[in-house]
Input
Amino acid sequence: MIRRLLPLVAFILLASLLYVGVRMNSGRDNSAIPSPLIDKPAPAFSLPVLGDATRKIGNKDLLGAPYLLNVWGSWCVNCREEHPQITALARSGKVRVIGYDYKDAPEDGQRWLAQFGNPYEIVIADQDGQAALDWGIYGAPETFLVDARGIIRWKAVGAISDEVIQQQIEPQLAKLAASP
Amino acid sequence: MKRLALILLLTMIGFVALAMEPIDYRSAAEEQRFRALTQELRCVLCQNQSLAESNAPIAHDLRLVILRLMRAGKSDDQIKQYLVARYTDFVLYRPEVEPLTWLLWFGPGLLVLVGATVIFAIVRRRSADTPTALPSNDNQEW
Output
């Protein structure tokens, strides 16, 4: 009897393994690489402000309050998709939103902001994408949440939706507010 | 002579398949090391390609960084460490052997072992069960 059930047992085991595998991966973007920088200090950088190349911004200039670093580029299609959400979040005043114009000609970046609106507190320009490597950036859009002391707390790869804001960013901000 | 030409041509096709911008290598050894290293690292954006094959802008940037680090006298391990620190061991085609990757490294061998044991057991039992000739199946319909 037990002998006869063996294939069935094997099948059930295999099926549950597959089920667990599918469940673990459903609704998740598998191409998104988790950041190794979570809970580590944001990398040191010094980049010019978009539209004012003489002014440089470094990570020390951004300390004092949490900020969202939103990586975008005028060449990036998904950035247009998330821009209304980013704009709404920035306007809500819940968190400072810093723009990071990635691998973009400054003229193009400025034209893009003129066209789609500029909700950012400040936009820094990384034209050749070298500083981005230290952040582990590999495309756009990407978004980091950095706390008041300059520690990276959260990162997302891909467009930010209302769902991501409500289910991930806002809880993270609440956590930061609770333990500054 | 013709054969040599053909071999040369085929080798050149192989090189064209790599998405390399022209690089002024300082030596043949440097070129070889660079090629070997970039083929062993995975492009973070298009994850089915190596850094050597990928045309993605980030792959281009990372290739230049690798060359720069090589010229700064960094070892292969140090260069890999640089990338892992920023992009996790996603970038390694051969990740480190550590508890988290044990299943990845030893799982296939384990499966082969389990399969071999099962087959061995079945074969042993069958040969014990059927001592002489197989029953005639001539009339059986499949």
Remarks:
- DSSP finds five helices and seven strands in chain A.
- Chain A has one domain: 34-178.
- Residues 16 and 22 of chain A are 10 Å apart (CA to CA).
